[in-house]
Queue: 4 jobs
Job 1
Amino acid sequence: MEYIKIRFGGETGRLGSNFERTLDSIFRSVNPMFAESERAWTPQIDVFETPQEIFITAEIAGVEKEDLDVEINQRAIRISGRRIPRPHVDQASFRLAEIQYGAFERTLHLPAPIDPEVVSATYANGLLQLRLAKAESAGPRRIPISED
């Protein structure tokens, strides 16, 4: 059985600025050749939850499982990786270039704390599916007040 790498950590906030992403998007729409070859792209993600679990599905078709990395902590998850460009046909010119290649990264802040020890991940048909168990909530606790 093969496994998807999942790292547990506290550092999950390495996103480029909105301004950088907007500029890159503008130049890419004018001509795909203006975009950086190592440009970060953003996979589409669905998140839904039940009272006990949080489910995340990321659409990352064309990415090899070995090129995926998932990091989690109790409040956030970071999915990153790389989609390698396919070889081009000699003597061919682009008429349309919409598929994004290169590195990608997506950080999500979770709607509830999770138990990092109860996580499962599968990758099939271009979809990464994560199942995260919510952390047991201790509930409200009564604090005794002492007199001075």
Job 2
Amino acid sequence: MARAGSFSMNRRNSAWMERGGWPWLAFVAVAAVLPLVLREFHVHLLTEILILGLFAAAFNLLFGYTGLLSFGQAAYFAIGAYACALWLKGPWPSLPVGLIAGAVLAAAAALVVGYLCVRRDEIYFAMVTLACGQLIFVALWRWREVTGGSDGIGGIPRPPLDLGAWAVSLAPTLHFYYFTLAVVAGALYVLWRITRSPFGLALRAVRDNHRRVDYLGLPMRRYRLAAFTVSGLFCGLAGALFAPYQGTITPVLADWMWSAEPVMMTLLGGPAVFGGPVLGAALITLLKDFVASETEYWPLLVGTAVVLLVLFLPGGVGGAVRDAAVGWRAPSPPIKAGDAGEEAV
């Protein structure tokens, strides 16, 4: 019986590896080793890449898997950031509780806004999400008693992580990086499982032909609303991580220009590849850091580079890497006897 159970466990592990477990292990291993050979500034930059990668992956659940282009996802990122910041500055600061509060409040806001938005299609959906996002931006800007208005919230602490027997300080950059890596890796894994579940297959069907899905009697709008809510939850989680990472937040996080960030990251990395948005977040963050250190006209150069990459790599960098890997692993077609004879001649 023990051998049978062990054999069954090995088969499940092998199947998990074949379905995509190796990329996850490689991602976690590389992300865990990199800080050990980099300077503190670069570790700080890697933390930002992880947070923005989660933000872009949450957006891509709507864009790449459901076919909905939203220009208001920054609003839920900002709600998560403000909720976590207010909790951390309260009488019982706890980072895990702050992350949960930020994610839940962002999901609740996304549920309300999504109920109004999913009734529209294409450009009308995008415009409604933009309008609702700007309403949240104005609310954060005007509600000075709670949000600090245009000044935002500063001095956001990083309270120690209580593990029962001991407490781990998250003030050092390296400690907070590994905490962020654990949260982001877990969140990305949950998103990945969602995209490969029956719910994820239904979202793909809605993306490919939502009218046929509606005609078949499936609740198309409910699927859209569920995707919108889940996307808002993970956007809020990314924002909740961003608050203690940055230490200061302002209503600019809810502005439509911040909503353009995950759009660019997803297009650059590739919406058809799950890890594409994370790759796009890394490329854009590193490109901004490099170009900004060389010239003050960095927005023009970064925008030009992104446009060129999107034009010449319509599937994104991640799509190009995937196609190259598939072509490399694909077996060559068998040579027929007649073909071999002709070649010999």
Job 3
Amino acid sequence: MNRSKKRGGSLEDKVIIARNRKAFRDFFILNTYEAGIVLQGCEVKSIRNHRLNLRDSYSRIRNNELLLYNMHISPYSKSRAEDINPTKTRKLLMRRREIDKIAGKLTDRSLTLVPLRVYMIKNKVKVELALAKGKARRDKRRDIQNREHEIEIKRALKKY
């Protein structure tokens, strides 16, 4: 019987709660990392109900801690809503070596940390962070043109 602990879990174990689709459009994704989030109980219940938005969120390293800004978690309807700020700064949990490695890569001014998705693995809420570089307008246009060409090619192939 193999009792080795598998990191990240399999795809069957992951329940994706939210995706940041805008990140793929606005950034080149270089590396991805997995981090846990420090949450309160009512926030976890809201996340299970998919009451979460990653649209303008980003991550930074402050005082050797990884923090997530502007992630909006709507208050849980059956809790005391006045206690919770929906967009408060949340601490992310990651090993010190990984944080130091990311901090070394972030010294380049053009890179940033962007959350790509939030998912649950065995009742634990995780965030997939990406080390990303911003796209220029011409890059975005080129991506749109490439997508349109691929669609045209698929349509042409279906006809024949």
Job 4
Amino acid sequence: MAGLTKKYTKSVAVNMVIANMIGTGIFISLGFQVLDNGIPDPFAILVIWLLGGLVSLCGAMAYGEVATTVNKSGGEYAFLSELYHPLVGFVSGWISMIAGFSAAIAGLALATGEYFIPLLGINHDATVNLGFFDFPISKIVATIAILLVVAVQLRGVRFGGIFQNYITYLKVALIAVFLVMPFIFAGNYEPSGVSFMPSDKSFDTIFGLPFAGALVWVMFSYSGWNASSYIVGNLENPRKNLPFSLVVGTLIVTVIYLLMNFVFMYVATFEELAPKDFARIDIGNVVATKILGSKVGLIFSGVFSLALISGLSAMFIAGPKVVQQIGKDYSSFRLLGKETESGAPKYAVLLMCVVSLILIYTSSFKQIVEYIGITLTLFSILTVFGVFILRWRKASTENTVKTWGYPITPIIFILLMIWMIIFFVYDNPMILVWSLVTMVPAVVIYYFSKNDKK
């Protein structure tokens, strides 16, 4: 029984997927979709959120086969090292540490700070002078949230898993309350009056180029559907629990996202939902305030910030596993591979904490979101394509879970992600340039360290 304290249970794996996925994306993506250069059609918006869920499911099924065949923690780092070359895995591990988790942690922490400020009764733009600099209070709250989660995860696998379960249950409970509020307090506000039935322009919108651009934000919201694959080496009965967590977690979030977008558009007009500021993440505030009034609505939004901490916790479970695996594979980074008696990858957690805090104070939320969207998709495509490589190599083991719908489901995932990247690069080519530039240090570090590979 003692050994099981270092293994995550099935419920933790499912909750990791849910907590990783439900973060800031659902509260900002719709704002860009309702703009004139987006897809301002209620039916098309619901279709794209359903499509995002289906694409994520296709990816999750492929990840289940790759993860159970390779059977190592560390996500894409471990998978791509086995599938292609250690250099590809090392670069993906580097990007995963910076973009996949640290940048995502920074973005989610910033959102937590924005939503928590109403509880403090202060202005969103309020600052505190600390020596030579003025620090936004929202960023100070974000820092505190990260340090709190780090302290929890350093307690070890068992304590961190219990915390993850309960904080995710809180998040789902608050979302359930949010979904029924419009109907309980129906007399408090005037609904938007939009129709969710397909209109004359719905199908033109769905097959138009802006639809691909809107999919970028949707897939950012769904990012995290592969979260439990990062802990496959520390998961009880991975052959059964990994695919279960990937599929069930993604299905639950897909239903939640469809319902939340329905509620958003049912309550507020497109004009009210449109972003007023790229740095302000406030669709939840807009809707809660319209239903409950300014005071109660802001308090609810502030309490909801506590639920966002579940996403931070899930990322601090999955992300350090990538860094730790690099430490185990390369003697140059062996310090990162060490863990405490309770199973916590101490130095990997601390490194990710430092990188996340740096990003909080040096980047805007919009920059973080765009960078994550393009960079992570590239490695997800390589991982899903790995299913075809494994089948060609006949690398299946007795623990391998076969991809449902092969080869159709992985092909659907790959084609839609390539379509999304093409639009993204056409719209903003510099994002791809910066993604490639970020990979250069990883290549240099790899060639200096490859002789130290264990």
